[in-house]
Amino acid sequence: MTVYDFEVKKINGEEVSLQDYKGKVLVIVNTASKCGFTPQFKELQSIFEEYEEKDFAVLGFPCNQFMNQEPGGEDEILEFCELNYGVTFPMFAKIEVNGKNADPLYKHLSNEAPGAMGLKAIKWNFTKFLVDRSGKVVKRYSPNASPFEMKEDIEKLL
């Protein structure tokens, strides 16, 4: 099983298959608009722009499971990301990343790349997963890891 086996909803509600990203290197990240890590949107956008033409994408999944730091609706989230951080990478509908209602994609990501001490649960907003061109989850990065710290690993996969 790879990330390409999953269907997700874009922030506008449109169902899409992650097959649409087949052959690309991906960073998949759970986001929040009112988090101390929210400024990472700027670095994620920078990396997206730098590598986009080399078949690379950042996929953002808003989540409100961590201290209600993503309380808004989809339109509000999208507007916030675009106005405050110039986000043009794909954003998806708000999801849960932990627990019984966790999105199937995030269950897969967590199983394929457990965090510190083998824990599968997502620790906080802006946990980042690096996925290779074949859809295999390569690595998990903690919320406090700067997206710029991922560049060397991204370049190896490109």
What's this, in brief?
With 158 residues, the chain is an alpha+beta fold. Helix content is 25%, strand content 18%.
Keywords for this structure?
alpha+beta, globular, two-stranded antiparallel sheet, Glutaredoxin, about 160 residues, four-stranded mixed sheet
N-end to C-end Cα span: 21 Å
Shape label: globular
Major beta sheet summary: 4 strands, mixed
CATH topology: Glutaredoxin
* CATH homologous group name: Glutaredoxin
Radius of gyration: 14 Å
Strand order of the largest sheet: 4-3-5-6
Written as H for each helix and E for each strand, in order along the chain, the element string is EEEHEHHEEH
CATH class membership: Alpha Beta
- The portion of residues forming beta strands comes to 15-25%
Summarize the structure in words.
- With 158 residues, this protein is α+β, with helices and mostly antiparallel strands.
- The protein has one domain (3-157): Glutaredoxin (3-Layer(aba) Sandwich).
- It contains four helices and six strands; from the N terminus they run βββαβααββα.
- The protein has helices at 40-51, 74-85, 104-112, 151-157, and strands at residues 7-9, 15-17, 25-31, 56-62, 128-131, 137-141.
- A four-stranded mixed β-sheet has the order 4-3-5-6, with helices on both faces.
- The radius of gyration is 14 Å and the shape is globular.
